[in-house]
Amino acid sequence: MGDSKPTQHKEIICDDDMLALREYFSAAESNPIILRQFVWFCIAYHFVTRGSETHHQLTPSSFAFRDDGHGEYAVLVHETAQKNHQGGLLDKEENVGKSMYATGGILCPVKCLKLLIEKTDATASKLFNQYNSEAVQLPVSTEIWFTAKSLAKRSFANFMSDISNSAKTSQRYTNHCVRATANQTLNDANVEARHIMFLSDHANEGSLRSYNRTVSREQKKMLSSTLSKAFSGE
């Protein structure tokens, strides 16, 4: 195709493209396609997950919603298998305590995650499912936006590429670009490496794992807030 964009691997999402993403995602609450994409992005960004490997494993009960006095947040309580730095499969990813805080406004990740679950067929066994075609045409009058039929595992590999095309970013980003951007954002904000490792389970995590237990609730809020502020442009 003549107008196709070259795929860029492991690139950091530039500021102008983050703006394009914010503008595109601003319609999430009124569009089932964009809502599903935005929730996928939020999970990949805030939990620094390997989206292609883990998101198909998530269920509507993978998250618990809580309030700790610092604000409402979603905590990932679902353990997922994913590849380690050497390419082997880890038995479990230690997700306990990883949190995504509410920010308010139309780009609030917690509000949109709740909306996705609310708009999904109650019998669905997975978090990400096929959308109801009627909901795309008539979202306001359609109560259920997503069916009980889950997305095929292979479809997750194209999430960020599809988002890039729809948001008209300057280049086509891969799923890994979201993870790389989150890591870079936290690093640029001078977040301690051990706290980044708490989220990312990245290379050399084994030597830092013992420190993960010391991550306080305030630090968890800071991790989520740093990512939210960078994405919202505040």
How would you describe the overall organization of this protein?
- The protein is α+β, with helices and mostly antiparallel strands and 234 residues long.
- The protein has a single domain (7-232), classed as hpI Integrase, Chain A.
- The chain has nine helices and seven strands.
- The protein has helices spanning 15-25, 32-46, 51-54, 109-118, 133-137, 159-167, 175-188, 193-200, 217-232; strands spanning 7-8, 63-67, 72-76, 99-101, 129-131, 146-150, 172-173.
- A three-stranded antiparallel sheet has the order 2-3-4. The chain has a two-stranded parallel sheet with strand order 1-7. It has a two-stranded antiparallel sheet with strand order 5-6.
- The longest helix has 16 residues, at 217-232.
- The protein is globular.
- The termini are far apart.
- Keywords: DNA recombination.
- One of its GO terms (molecular function) is DNA binding.
- InterPro entries: DNA_brk_join_enz, Integrase-like_cat_sf, MAVS.
The first-level CATH class name: Mainly Alpha
CATH topology call: hpI Integrase, Chain A
Helical stretch count? Answer: 9
Main sheet properties: 3 strands, antiparallel
- Based on secondary structure, the structural category is alpha+beta
CATH superfamily: Intergrase catalytic core
Kindly give the count of domains: 1
Mean pLDDT score, rounded?
Answer: 83
* Percent in strands: 5-15%
Contiguous uncertain segments of 5+ residues: 84-95, 205-213
Helix content: 25-40%
Tell me, briefly, the overall form.
globular
Give the name of the CATH architecture. Orthogonal Bundle
Compute the CA-based radius of gyration. 17 Å
Q: Give the strand order, joined by hyphens, for the main sheet.
A: 2-3-4
Q: What is the first-to-last residue Cα distance? A: 37 Å
H-E order = EHHHEEEHEHEHEHHH
What is the β-strand count? 7
